[in-house]
Amino acid sequence: MEHLIKEAEAFVKDRFKEEVTGHDWLHMERVRKLSFLIWEHERAGDPLYIDLVALLHDVDDDKLASKEHTHTLKDWLINMGVQQDLMQNLLTDTANISYRKGIRSLLSPEALIVQDADRLDAMGAIGIARAFAYGAKSGQMICHKDDLNDRMRDKGSGSTVAHFYDKLLVLKDLMNTKTGREMAEERHEFMQDFLCQFKKEWKE
Ligand code: ADP
Ligand code: NI
Predict the structure, then answer these.
(1) Quick one: which atom of ligand 1 is closest to the CA of 58?
(2) CA of 120 relative to ligand 1 center, distance in Å
(3) How would you classify residue 10: left for phi > 0, otherwise alpha for psi between -120 and 50, otherwise beta?
(4) Which domain holds residue 168?
(5) ipTM of the prediction
(6) Which of 100, 118, 136, 150 has minimal CB crowding within 10 Å?
(7) Does one domain contain both 61 and 16?
(8) What total number of domains does the chain contain?
(9) Are 99 and 137 found together in one domain?
(10) CATH number at residue 83
(11) How far apart are CA 46 and CA 85, in angstroms?
(12) Are residues 80 and 135 located together in one domain of the fold?
């Protein structure tokens, strides 16, 4: 598996080299690191397989699909000569890590750890930076007038501040592992503080 990890590193580094919406190579590196940290506490599953899932988890994300990237993860795995059962496990795990489309019951113990790591990277200071980068690239507003009042806001408003209420502030309660839950606390609080200051400045 070590050899495949090296190949995956090169593949993902190249594939995400021009990514500016927060799904760049450094996101994959952080998810690997966070996954390993969680694994060290939880000791669930094979750390080498965790590393592979962390590296490959965003390859097939349709948000990131571009004209240049016509090859899917499956194409790459076939090209690498990966065994049938490892290939199936990787395809199922990477397809189900996503917040929007994932089915949690299909995830392996290793992928549950990577999902926590991926969510941690969407929270805290880094998560805030990624959300605004993604929002700008997808052409959405920073904030609409009513988005700062959770009761008044239009749920479909689609601003980046609305995305905090729609998704980022619920992540802490969706963590799979005890370690992930603990790590999510500080990042969650930081996002709350950020929104609090944002509201304060908005009203000045
Ligand atoms: P998942 O694949 O788990 O659904 P996403 O790929 O949707 O996760 O999200 C990954 C990153 O993109 C996160 O940092 C998230 O905040 C950001 N993101 C996704 N959708 C939006 C959005 N509508 N506005 C701002 N940021 C977003
Ligand atoms: Ni990701």
Answers:
(1) 2
(2) 12
(3) alpha
(4) 122-204
(5) 0.95
(6) 100
(7) yes
(8) 2
(9) no
(10) 1.10.472.50
(11) 15
(12) no
Residues 132 and 42 in one domain: no
CA distances to 148, 150, 194, 202 from 199, rounded to whole Å, are 7, 12, 9, 5
Determine the distance separating the centroid of ligand 2 and the alpha carbon of 92, expressed in angstroms: 15
Give the pLDDT means over successive 10-residue stretches in the chain (204 positions).
96 91 93 98 97 97 70 95 98 93 94 98 98 94 85 76 95 98 98 96 89
Q: Which of 23, 24, 134, 176 for a ligand 1 pocket mutation test, highest count of atoms within 8 Å of Cβ? A: 134
Q: Which atom of ligand 1 is nearest to the CA of 131?
A: 26
Angle between helices 178-203 and 124-137 (to 10 degrees): 60
197 and 98 in one domain?
A: no
